[in-house]
Design goal:
With 116 residues, the protein is of the alpha+beta class. It has 2 domains: 4-47, no CATH class; 68-114, Pemi-like Protein 1, Chain: D, CATH 2.10.260. 30% of the residues lie in helices and 10% in strands. The chain is built from 4 helices and 2 strands. The longest helix is centred in the middle third of the chain and has 11 residues, at 37-47.
Length: 116
């Protein structure tokens, strides 16, 4: 992700493209491929010399830390159980890696056993 003078120069070069294409061209894309617009706009504002203070909302100081992994999940209405990116990253798992799912009914435990 470009910052400062480099960000301003690259954004200027791409100025005839859409906002999304400029953000992508400057590297503001998350691990899932989602365009990180808020981060892009904040970086642009800071590159122009404006200081942005941390917002103090309901979460207090947590706002400056971003979203925190809680090691909790729930079964969604469609029956799926989601394990988020933070946990995948923490375990060092890679896209395409395969697992065998082992269930222990007596303890309601799920084990993921790597196949490769």
């Amino acid at each position: 992700m470009l910052e400062g003078k480099e960000l301003l120069e690259k954004a200027k070069l791409l100025s005839k493209q859409s906002e999304v294409e400029i953000a992508i061209g400057c590297g503001y894309v998350g691990p899932s491929g989602r365009v990180l617009r808020k981060s892009f706009y904040r970086a642009l504002i800071e590159a122009k010399g404006y200081k942005i203070g941390n917002r103090q909302g309901k979460a207090g100081n947590r706002a400056s830390r971003g979203r925190q992994a809680e090691f909790r999940t729930k079964v969604h209405g469609n029956g799926n159980l989601l394990i988020g990116h933070a946990y995948i990253k923490k375990l060092g798992l890679k896209p395409g890696q395969e697992f065998k799912i082992d269930l222990k009914k007596e303890s309601n435990t799920i084990y993921l056993i790597p196949l490769n």
